[in-house]
Amino acid sequence: MKLYGFYLHHRHSFLVYEYLERDSLATTLSNDHEAKELGWSKMVNIVKDLANALSDMQHNCLPPIVHRDISSKNVLLDSEYEACVSDFGTAKFLNPESTNWTATVELAYTMEVTETCDGYSFGVVTLEIIIGRHPGDVFSSLSSGASPSSSSTSPAPEMSILDVLDQCISPPSKREAEEVVSLVKIAFASLNPSPQCRPTMEKVSQLLSSTQRLHLSKPLHMTTFGELLALDGFTT
């Protein structure tokens, strides 16, 4: 999100940003009509935009920029549904007692901030886009190392991937399905409790920008969540 200028006065301070016609990603996802209008192709592109922005912040800036508060509320959309990251610096004064479901395990317990913190939050937002709601239960299960619960937002290994996707949107086409399941795979890799095992945002951006995607040997409704997570590697 471009910053055009600022105004500083002893009584008032203003930041002037580019105008984005649409609301936040969180607001869009909470509106069934708007979510349906998005469709899977635009949702995939939103994830790509977010990955590219975080990669640029972490790998093309010196020193690297760590946002520390990436969430669907801080992703804004323009008229063409292109995503921009906003609210830089809002996490500067971190409240250790706050409940931020996009915060990483190491940030919550050790207050250690690294580039991988934003990568973890990227994984949470990606799942939120795909599921259509905040994946709090999924996050809890992964963080605790426990098996996913049977709630609607925590897909069990035997659950069909199609049952996990946002039900407000028509089932994806074959090509869209391969892109969506690739996002799920990358999202869970980004949610690895060990920061060293998470892919860098540069790697994520490269994967999403390439023609590589996971190949499904079975239709989406016949592919389980466990089978997806067991798949290894991408094909072109």
UniProtKB/TrEMBL annotation:
Entry coiled-coil feature ranges: none
Domain Protein kinase: 1-208
Enzyme Commission number: 2.7.11.1
Entry GO MF terms: ATP binding; protein serine/threonine kinase activity
Organism encoding this protein: Prunus dulcis (Almond)
Keyword ATP-binding among UniProt keywords: yes
Statement: the UniProt record of this protein carries the keyword Kinase: yes
Class in the EC hierarchy, top level: transferase
Keyword list, A-Z: ATP-binding, Kinase, Nucleotide-binding, Serine/threonine-protein kinase, Transferase
Reaction(s) the record says it catalyses: L-seryl-[protein] + ATP = O-phospho-L-seryl-[protein] + ADP + H(+); L-threonyl-[protein] + ATP = O-phospho-L-threonyl-[protein] + ADP + H(+)
Stored InterPro entries: Kinase-like_dom_sf (IPR011009), Prot_kinase_dom (IPR000719), Ser-Thr/Tyr_kinase_cat_dom (IPR001245), Ser_Thr_Kinases_DiverseReg (IPR051420), Tyr_kinase_AS (IPR008266)
UniProt name for this protein: non-specific serine/threonine protein kinase
